[in-house]
Amino acid sequence: MKKSILGLAVVSAIPMFSSMQVLAADDAAESIEKIQVTGSRIKRTDMETSSPVTLIGADDIKAMGASSIDGVLQKMTAASGAMTNPAVNNGSGGNARVDLRGLGAQRTLVLVNGRRMINSGTGAASTVDLNTIPVSMIKQVEVLKDGASAVYGTDAVAGVVNIILKDDFEGLDMNLNGAITGEGDADETSFDITMGSSFDRGNVVIGLQYTDRGDASQADRDFSDCPIEEDYENGSFYCGGSSYTPFGHVWAENADLQGQADGEWHDFTSAGDAYNYSATSYLYTPMRRLNLTGIGHFDVTDETRLVSEFTYSKRWSTQQMAPQPVWFDFTYDADTMGDSLLSHGVADGEDISYGRRMTDVGPRGYEQVVDTVRAVIGLDGAFDNGWGWDTSVVFGRNDSVDRATNLLNMGSIQDAIEEGDFNPLNQADWSGSNLAQYNYTENNSGGSQLLVLSAGLNGEVMELPAGYVGFAAGIERREEKAWYVPDSLTSQGLANDPRVEPTGGRFDVNEAYVEFAVPLLADAPFAQMVDLSAAVRAFDYSTFGSDETWKLGLTWRVNDELMLRAVRSTAFRAPTVSELYQGKSPSFEQVNFPGAQDQAEVTVGGNDQLTPELADTVTAGFVYAPEWLDGFSMTVDYYEIEIENSISSVNNQYIVENCLDASTGAYKNQDTALCQSSAINFNQSTGRISFNNQLQNIGNESTKGYDVNFKYAFEAAGLNWRTGLDVTILDEYIVDSGTSTIDYTGLVTSGIGSYAKVKSNFTLNASGDNWDAQYQARMIDGLDSYACLADDSECLVPSVGTVVYHDISGSYILNDTVSFSAGVNNLFDKQAPYYSGNNDSNTDPYTYDVLGRRFFAGMNIKF
Q1: Cα-based distances in Å from 1 to 30, 370, 408, 533
Q2: Cβ proximity of 87 and 71 under 8 Å
Q3: Any residues with CB less than 8 A from the CB of 686 and at least 6 apart, and which?
Q4: Residue 6, pLDDT above cutoff 60
Q5: I want to staple 244 with a disulfide (CB 3.0 to 4.6 A). Which of 74, 270, 325, 328 is the partner?
């Protein structure tokens, strides 16, 4: 088959990554008779399909100094929203996620070597924890930015990340890598070794990687060392924090009092008394991780091959937050509790609310130990007629234990108060020695399990004038279950937080698919090649019944320089076990409301009444590689995704704004479905807001925009140069909850990340005979704060300007055995920006770099 110039451009790499992997993949296409590309199960003679696929190679990962693949994927321009990463301290559970198009990690399907990865992480996981992927074993990553439910099944709504591990490796490869910030923290050390050997009928590859990541504290950065509060009237800022303070805080009908170490009280002021919870909170969370991998194949006969994969990961991760805030109500008894409140307007016998920050016992620690195993065994081969077949079994299991330390059993303390054995107004009763009997460690466990049985067939069914019709078909059975068992005290509601319910459930699904690739025209005027692709998948869920999805794609190669492509597909996403059966639990989320605490108590959890999501996806674009400019190519693709019956929770800030009157604090819109289901409660005496925000089928979501890619490779001054620019333009991201419509385009939020209108990555690479150097620039367009949309007059910083990060890296080959690499990320030490209504650390750790300048270096030894 004739290889056109387009062969170097159809599957375009992100410009911030080296394009060497694209060239290598294309060269491989000429030497391998048939290959399979992410987004299709039909084996082809090249990598040219109707769907846009991005390739990221091992060299690209090394150039970024990344020891985990999430640090690479989260920097893609097509990624946005809330992607859990090491900078997310509150509620991350040590997990790492990727979120294509900002539609949620649950709508991005993660594959390993083309097969489904086990949902993993802490608790009853519903998405893949990228920490389970051994980055040292990655050969390349293929990112399909297109819906692919008809090909792969549920979850492939926003796209697919297919992580391809090394096979057919021979020799020994060792790496020692280290990193540290300019502040001397968040240090990281990683060691890996990969060994491979071939024999007469096969190959075996074994890999080991160990990573040790240190922490950084919010107290060690100027932008995050205290919670910033805004004085709207004077246009100034001050260090604020929580109204749950050391020595106690009393709310009464005519009093708002702050306790003192000597047992006295004074009127509480936010500017002077608020507790700085940043001082003991992590800015960057520590982790240790072990990855073991084994991959092998054995030729049973000349036509049959046995394949096997095994991956195991163990993660030890930690987060640290400010000491526990406790709160409870009691009746003031001056005779037994003392008369210290009488002079401040609190009457004897009055009901009061009491809050305290438990600096008496120290900061809260959250620890996770997570084990994830995945095993694959399969057979594949070919018949005499050239048709290929394959069958496999995939088994995965994820088990987690998480602990929370320095917690107090408030149920026991309240019992002691009622019995007269504990005086909450006496500072001595809150001493560390007295509290030891109430101190406890919370222990929870959870996990998930996956079993997939599959069989497939592929080949060429008939010859048409323009070529052969490609064909693939198969059947699959998938079984999933997940569980979460909370600590006994927590499950009974005997701790200070509301009770957490257990999670448990399962489902199974039987599926069948068929796919065709039909050549329509060949070697015609203005139609060098026109191909039609079609796929249909039918499925039957034990929880939802039967349905189907389909996909149609068109590839029109006009000539050697220009190719047009388009895909129309439907997608289906079934609720996960966690989404269906997760028990209710409290989550403390940032909100902005006059007279209220900055964190609301939000009840979250699953909903067994959920129904599946349905989506329509369209992509259309072109690839242009002109003969008159050798080495240059460009791609432009339009995407549009519309999701019906979307499973989500409502924006927390939106609930507060729509169900509470900002001027009076009174309830409003209580006749609407939104406010009725939220059951919002605002205690104006304590400033505490609480409401329900469990998952539900909230309505529709839609997003559309453009991906643009430019690449140019050339020789000059005796060097090889590669440059590229990757741009994603977000035209809209609309969430319609049925009662309201919100367009998140150009907004940064306090909990679901950001949706920049424009994100771009630029790369310039120069290489000589034994060295390589690279410059990268990542741009995030300016954003407006969602919290300020209703009334930006009360926001001192309602928007964030454009942020650009600059990175440099390089490598040097000493000899055939030893090479070195080094680099600096965030070269100019760009500080994370502040905005009104921020998330955590006075910024958005989902979006911005919180560490500042970071140095990394590594040594590679190979034999």
Answers
A1: 9, 49, 71, 19
A2: no
A3: 251, 327, 353, 355, 597
A4: no
A5: 325
> Could you tell me which of 716, 708, 565 has the C-alpha nearest to residue 631?
716
The C-alpha angle 85, 781, 567, rounded to 5 degrees, equals 80
Q: How many CA atoms lie within 13 A of 124 on its CB side?
A: 24
Q: Which helix (H) or strand (E) holds 463?
A: strand 439-464
Distance CA 555, CA 530 (A): 6
* 773-787 pLDDT tens trace: 999 999 999 999 999
- Which residue type occupies 850? V
The set of residues, in sequence order, having a beta carbon less than 8 Å from that of 31 and lying 6+ positions away, is none
Q: What is the dihedral of CA 131, 137, 142, 145, to 10 degrees?
A: 0
φ, ψ of residue 847 in degrees (nearest 5)? -110, -40
Kindly state the tokens that stand for 530: 């026109």
CA distance 152 to 78: 20
Instruction: List, for residues 630-675, the tens digit of each pLDDT value.
Output: 999 999 999 999 999 999 888 788 899 889 998 899 999 998 878 8
Q: Which residues pair with 452 in a beta bridge?
A: 394, 478
Tell me how far apart the alpha carbons of residues 617 and 147 are, in angstroms, rounded to a whole number.
Answer: 6
Residue 842 backbone phi and psi in degrees, to 5: 65, 20
Give the integer Cα–Cα distance in Å for 173 and 320.
36
pLDDT one-digit tens code per residue, 369-419: 999 999 999 999 999 888 999 999 999 999 999 999 999 988 889 889 989
Structural tokens at position 312: 């195991």
Q: pTM for the complete prediction?
A: 0.91
Predicted confidence at residue 122, as pLDDT, reads: 92
Residues 591 and 660: their CA atoms lie apart, in Å, by 12
* C-alpha–C-alpha distance, residues 104 and 79, integer Å: 10
Residue 432 per-residue DSSP state = H
The percent of residues above 90 in pLDDT, for the chain, comes to 74
Is the per-residue pLDDT at 477 higher than 50?
A: yes
